[in-house]
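Quick review question:
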């Protein structure tokens, strides 16, 4: 498990949306969490000019020029100048050069929203699957035909290069990075502090219908908490609907509207999250973890781990060895 340095590219002029998407990685990586991991990430703000950038009610100062991207473990770019998107102008040469140098030096490259245009201009997305905010994906695909643009997902993890859709999908990707670096347990605790879902899969659709009244959304919370406490039991949509005192069809619609995923996929995601936590925090066998997480057999756990997370449970455990594990054998 490791943190390392995160270099965040900041705009020459800050708009309100820029502040929103800058604040996401700044909050996740820039606020020390000594009880979760010590040291936490080292955050660098890097801009073309080392000066204050102001928007009504806000001021921002970059400590480093763009040369500060080189040598960072992770580089995040969440913006490009407005005239790149609106006027079709090229991404500034100094930004492109700095991004290429950082990548060549071994940095993990990350874009949020229209930051994908900067990575694409640098050639870092050629031949790769990538995403951006759905309002800009058609333009991204037309402008950079070598990029495999997917407008239907929250984020894409292609190993050393990751891209996300806009707005809160950037938070999903940042928490995904914490999960990759420090494991599911720490990522879940951080998400709880931020009062957001612990894990939304990158393949989840961008187009989430949030028109369900808040009272309906809130009515699902006790049911989902009830299900999380019983993941080791066989659970069906009928069971969850019965607990919510609605028909299976109504429950399916409400959960999909609130989370953007189906009840069965939601259950699978919760079971994988529990399996990750048990792999990190206990010495239980893979067979026992499969049973406790509701995935049944070790083979079934391995199958879903490889498909959803990309590595085997054993490799995951080796990647996230805790300081001490609690033996929970029963």
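Suggested answer, residue by residue:
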């Amino acid at each position: 498990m490791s943190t390392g340095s995160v270099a965040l590219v900041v705009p020459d002029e800050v708009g309100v949306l820029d502040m929103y998407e800058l604040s996401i990685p700044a909050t996740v990586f820039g606020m020390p969490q000594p009880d979760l991991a010590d040291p936490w990430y080292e955050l660098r703000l890097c801009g073309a000019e080392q000066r204050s950038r102001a928007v009504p009610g806000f001021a921002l100062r970059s400590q480093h020029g763009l040369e500060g991207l080189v040598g960072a473990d992770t580089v995040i770019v969440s913006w490009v100048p407005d005239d790149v998107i609106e006027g079709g102008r090229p991404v500034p040469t100094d930004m492109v050069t700095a991004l290429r140098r950082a990548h060549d030096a071994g940095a993990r490259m990350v874009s949020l929203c229209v930051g994908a245009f900067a990575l694409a201009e640098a050639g870092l997305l050629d031949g790769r699957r990538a995403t951006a905010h759905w309002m800009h994906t058609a333009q991204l695909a037309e402008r950079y035909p070598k990029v495999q643009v997917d407008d239907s997902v929250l984020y894409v993890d292609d190993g050393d290069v990751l891209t996300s859709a806009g707005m809160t999908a950037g938070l999903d990707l940042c928490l995904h990075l914490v999960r990759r670096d420090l494991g599911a347990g720490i990522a879940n605790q951080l998400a709880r502090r931020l009062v957001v879902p612990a894990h939304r899969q990158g393949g989840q659709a961008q187009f989430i219908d949030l028109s369900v009244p808040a009272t309906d959304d809130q009515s699902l919370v006790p049911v989902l908490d009830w299900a999380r406490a019983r993941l080791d039991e066989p659970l069906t949509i009928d069971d969850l609907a019965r607990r919510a005192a609605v028909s299976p069809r109504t429950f399916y619609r409400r959960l999909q509207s609130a989370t953007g995923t189906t009840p069965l996929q939601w259950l699978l995601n919760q079971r994988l999250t529990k399996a990750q936590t048990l792999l990190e925090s206990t010495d239980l066998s893979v067979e026992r973890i499969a049973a406790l997480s509701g995935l049944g057999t070790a083979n079934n756990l391995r199958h879903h781990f490889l498909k959803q997370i990309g590595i085997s449970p054993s490799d995951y455990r080796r990647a996230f060895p805790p300081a001490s594990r609690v033996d929970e054998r029963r």
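Why it works: The chain has a mean pLDDT of 85. The CA atoms of residues 126 and 147 lie 5 Å apart.
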